[in-house]
């Protein structure tokens, strides 16, 4: 079989190493170009309310996807981390409640808010990783509830039930960042940043060892990896991502209050991430898009079907139940199943070559 | 058992003994002036204490079903609060239509237990061993149930009224204050407490003891305990474990329904109570120890007392206090106070 051996030079000539630009899959080009030119034909409502909100919820849900998908830790406290960052921006920055808000400039406020969110996430993570698997859900749920009640009761720092209104993004470079187009690009940028950061990290040494910790913590510990440190670090990173989402969330609705971070929306974040799929960072964004579409248009659909518009929550719950019941991996899992079944031979059921 | 504990932890026993003595003094003694000045009137203290203990009884009823189901099936049933709320509504309508308060308890227990059987057969048996998926499904079920109940019953508060022979106050005979009038006459006032709360608390103690006896002294209890320790081994010996699962799930769900009737009599039934009681039972079992019935009792007592004393002495942060206790327990004893490591 001497003729089969190919010298490396020949191999390189036949199969030249592709440029980095050629290695980007086609789907990225389509989605990327579509998202970039979207403002030229979409309405302001669609850009600000639908897409902006999708990206924000997607960012927060992808912080959960990172924790759950790569770390195996399902946390219900992600919206709480987001809420901490949102509150900090309101407290240190400007808002209508000028007795509490300190009015510091944005280049101090935003990094400070993110640092506090990361510290908070680290402390919560340190508490949560003392428990395993299913316990983590319960503990993070209890922590989310505690923070919600705390912000609702505390009037000195968190302004209680009312929270803060007029929490606006800074007028940087003379742009009104809450204008539909500017806000669309702002959220798109951070969503893309979060997406690629998670994608990168999942292939970096830290992400790989985190996945090892997820699959077999005892073996990783025996190999000399510090299991607890990896888990806590994953919480810290997820706190950063969630914090970015939280600041954007506060800017989008121009307010932050205990209602923003109560239990129901915290569970919605889990619903979004699970329905989209926890296998790949794109999942949460798909889930968020569906959720926002449902939340915006379900009332119209329900009324058109002759039902009361109040049954929106029922629709969400049933949809979530159906997805979890039939496909534990969410919509991405369904897609995967569909693709596999199409690759199968319909007669024998075996995979086609 | 007490002697063994005292031998192992002499310091803890001393502290616990001292705490019990102080508590007995606070309950039975007539408070001197300086104590009243320091922490307020004795009546307020006693009311908070009694409210806390009886609330603990209610929490125990909800949380014991939760912890039993978890202990055996490793299934975190996040729809447990919805079962509680469902029991409350059923109890309200049964009591309202028939006028028999006592009938509300067995009907709520049975109907919610039947719903639990359906849940176990249709949902949980199909995804055995998949903890996360089960938990997610129960979240979905609780969202759907909450909205269905809001649809049928509306957002109103429902209050189950206990029958006449239970609704009055009861003389406890504990002296709250003693004053000497200028005429030289000594006026003694004693604490009166709602009869229904005391009866319900006693009933929950009876249920707790019955459950403990069932688990520790009967054949079924032996099966359940064996299942908690090693499920696979138990089924390998030929025990019909699926039947045990269904039975325990039905019993746990029924307890939640029963607790709903109690809660509707104590307080009221309204949308949102499901999440409140789900959280309460989560905190109770985390503090007490997962899967342990005595742990649930201890946790329920601690959380009930913390909530009531908190709402009297530091009203702003009463809710946060319970979560603070949970965090402390987690930090120093992650398996819970009476949980097994």
From TrEMBL, chain A:
Keywords: Cell membrane, Membrane, Transmembrane, Transmembrane helix. Signal peptide: none annotated. The chain crosses the membrane at residues 20-39, 45-67, 79-97, 103-127, 134-151, 182-202, 223-250, 256-278, 285-308, 314-335. InterPro entries: ABC_transp_permease, LivM-like. It is a multi-pass membrane protein. Coiled coil: none annotated. The keyword Coiled coil does not apply. It is found in: Cell membrane. This is Branched-chain amino acid ABC transporter permease. It comes from Roseobacter sinensis.
From TrEMBL, chain B:
Keywords: Amino-acid transport, Cell membrane, Membrane, Transmembrane, Transmembrane helix, Transport. Its main location: membrane. InterPro entries: ABC_transp_permease, BCAA_transport_permease. Signal peptide: none annotated. Pfam families: BPD_transp_2. PANTHER family: ABC TRANSPORTER ATP-BINDING PROTEIN (PTHR11795:SF442), BRANCHED-CHAIN AMINO ACID TRANSPORT SYSTEM PERMEASE PROTEIN LIVH (PTHR11795). This is Branched-chain amino acid ABC transporter permease. It comes from Roseobacter sinensis.
């Amino acid at each position: 079989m001497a003729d089969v051996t190919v010298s490396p030079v020949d191999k390189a000539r036949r199969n030249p190493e592709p440029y980095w630009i050629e290695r980007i899959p086609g789907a990225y080009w389509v989605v990327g170009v579509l998202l970039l030119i979207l403002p030229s034909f979409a309405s302001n409502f669609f850009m600000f309310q639908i897409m902006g909100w999708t990206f924000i919820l997607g960012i927060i849900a992808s912080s959960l996807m990172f924790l759950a998908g790569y770390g195996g830790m399902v946390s219900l406290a992600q919206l709480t981390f987001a809420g901490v960052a949102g509150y900090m921006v309101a407290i240190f920055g400007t808002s209508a409640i000028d007795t509490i808000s300190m009015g510091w400039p944005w280049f101090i406020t935003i990094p400070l808010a993110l640092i506090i969110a990361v510290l908070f996430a680290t402390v919560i993570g340190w508490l949560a990783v003392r428990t395993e698997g299913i316990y983590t859900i319960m503990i993070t749920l209890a922590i989310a509830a505690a923070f919600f009640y705390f912000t609702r009761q505390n009037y000195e720092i968190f302004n209680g039930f009312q929270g803060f209104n007029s929490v606006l993004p800074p007028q940087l470079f003379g742009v009104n960042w809450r204008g539909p187009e500017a806000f669309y690009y702002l959220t798109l940028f951070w969503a893309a940043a979060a997406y690629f950061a998670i994608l990168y990290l999942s292939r970096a040494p830290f992400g790989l060892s985190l996945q090892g910790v997820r699959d077999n913590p005892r073996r990783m510990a025996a190999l000399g990896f510090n299991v607890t440190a990896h888990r806590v670090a994953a919480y810290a990173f997820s706190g950063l991502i969630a914090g970015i989402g939280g600041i954007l969330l506060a800017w989008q609705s121009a307010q932050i209050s205990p209602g923003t971070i109560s239990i129901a929306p915290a569970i919605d974040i889990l619903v979004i991430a699970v329905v989209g799929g926890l296998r790949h960072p794109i999942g949460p964004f798909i889930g968020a898009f569906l959720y926002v579409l449902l939340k915006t248009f379900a009332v119209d659909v329900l009324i058109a079907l002759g039902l009361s518009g109040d049954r929106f929550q029922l629709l969400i719950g049933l949809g979530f139940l159906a997805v979890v019941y039939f496909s534990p991996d969410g919509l991405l899992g369904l897609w995967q199943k569909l693709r596999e079944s199409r690759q199968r031979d319909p007669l024998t059921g075996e995979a086609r070559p | 058992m007490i002697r063994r504990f005292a031998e192992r932890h002499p310091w803890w026993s001393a502290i616990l003994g001292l705490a019990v003595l102080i508590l007995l003094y606070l309950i039975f003694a007539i408070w001197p002036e300086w104590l009243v000045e320091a922490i307020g009137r004795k009546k307020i203290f006693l009311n908070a204490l009694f409210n806390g203990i009886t609330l603990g009884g209610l929490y125990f009823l909800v949380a014991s079903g939760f912890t039993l189901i978890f202990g055996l099936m490793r299934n975190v049933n996040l729809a447990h609060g919805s079962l509680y709320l469902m029991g409350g509504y059923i109890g309200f309508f049964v009591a309202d239509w028939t006028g028999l308060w006592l009938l509300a308890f067995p009907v709520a227990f049975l109907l919610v237990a039947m719903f639990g059987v359906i849940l176990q057969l249709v949902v949980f048996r199909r995804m055995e061993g998949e903890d996360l998926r089960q938990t997610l499904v129960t979240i979905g079920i609780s969202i759907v149930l909450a909205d269905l109940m809001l649809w049928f019953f509306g957002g109103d508060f429902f209050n189950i009224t206990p029958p006449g022979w239970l609704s009055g106050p009861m003389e406890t005979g504990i002296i709250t204050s003693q004053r000497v009038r200028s005429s030289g006459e000594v006026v003694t006032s004693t604490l009166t407490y709602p009869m229904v709360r005391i009866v319900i608390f006693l009933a929950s103690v009876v249920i707790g003891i019955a459950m403990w006896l069932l688990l520790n002294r009967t054949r079924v209890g032996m099966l359940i305990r064996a299942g908690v320790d090693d499920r696979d081994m138990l089924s390998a010996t030929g025990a019909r474990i699926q039947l045990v699962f269904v039975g325990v799930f039905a019993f746990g769900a029924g307890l939640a329904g029963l607790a709903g009737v109690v809660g509707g009599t104590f307080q009221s039934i309204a949308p949102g109570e499901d999440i409140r009681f789900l959280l309460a039972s989560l905190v109770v079992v985390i503090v007490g120890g997962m899967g342990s019935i005595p742990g649930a009792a201890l946790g329920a007592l601690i959380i009930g007392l913390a909530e009531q004393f908190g709402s009297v002495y530091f009203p702003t942060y009463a809710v946060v206090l319970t979560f603070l206790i949970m965090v402390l327990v987690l930090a120093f004893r992650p398996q819970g106070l009476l949980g097994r490591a």
